[in-house]
Write a structure and sequence with these properties.
transmembrane helix, VanZ family protein, globular, mainly alpha, about 85% helix, VanZ-like, transmembrane, single chain, Phosphotransbutyrylase
């Protein structure tokens, strides 16, 4: 039971972090991402001709993708530790991640200067799908390795 509790703690903590970051008013959120984008721009601009705004947008959208990439993996792991089969766990982790993305964008409608964007839900869902795809590949490789190891015993 203790392992099961820990398995569910991580997706809940990650969802709380997403909620916290989404709850930042537009000025605060933009300030955080602008600061990070400025550092990235200072590194990239001397090598590749790029506008600051392009770097800023890519950083923000990739943050969406990465946040839900991680969330989906945390959810699928918790579901697997709860005894759910791999295929069902992947489906439910995708559904859970995508629904959380929708609620996150609705939540932002109530934050000063923020908006809910369908495009962000699609980016979030793409991140979740990619995370689950990677998880599925790694799980399959581990299964094949275990099967091969047990055949040699």
């Amino acid at each position: 039971m203790k392992k099961l509790s820990w398995a569910w703690l991580w997706p809940i903590v990650w969802m709380a972090l997403i909620f916290y970051l989404s709850h930042q008013p537009a000025g605060v959120s933009s300030g955080i991402s602008s600061s990070l984008a400025r550092h990235l721009f200072d590194v990239v601009a001397p090598i590749v001709p790029v506008e600051f705004e392009t770097i800023h947008t890519l950083l923000r959208k990739n943050a969406h993708f990465l946040a839900y990439f991680v969330l989906s993996i945390l959810l699928v792991r918790a579901l697997r530790k709860s005894g759910v089969g791999l295929a069902r766990a992947i489906i439910w982790a995708f559904v859970g991640s995508s629904l959380y993305a929708v609620t996150d964008e609705v939540h932002q409608l109530f934050i000063p200067g923020r908006s809910g964007e369908l495009r962000d839900v699609l980016i979030d869902s793409a991140g979740a799908a990619t995370g689950l795809f990677v998880y599925g590949i790694v799980s399959r490789m581990e299964w094949k390795q275990q099967k091969k190891a047990s055949a040699h015993q």
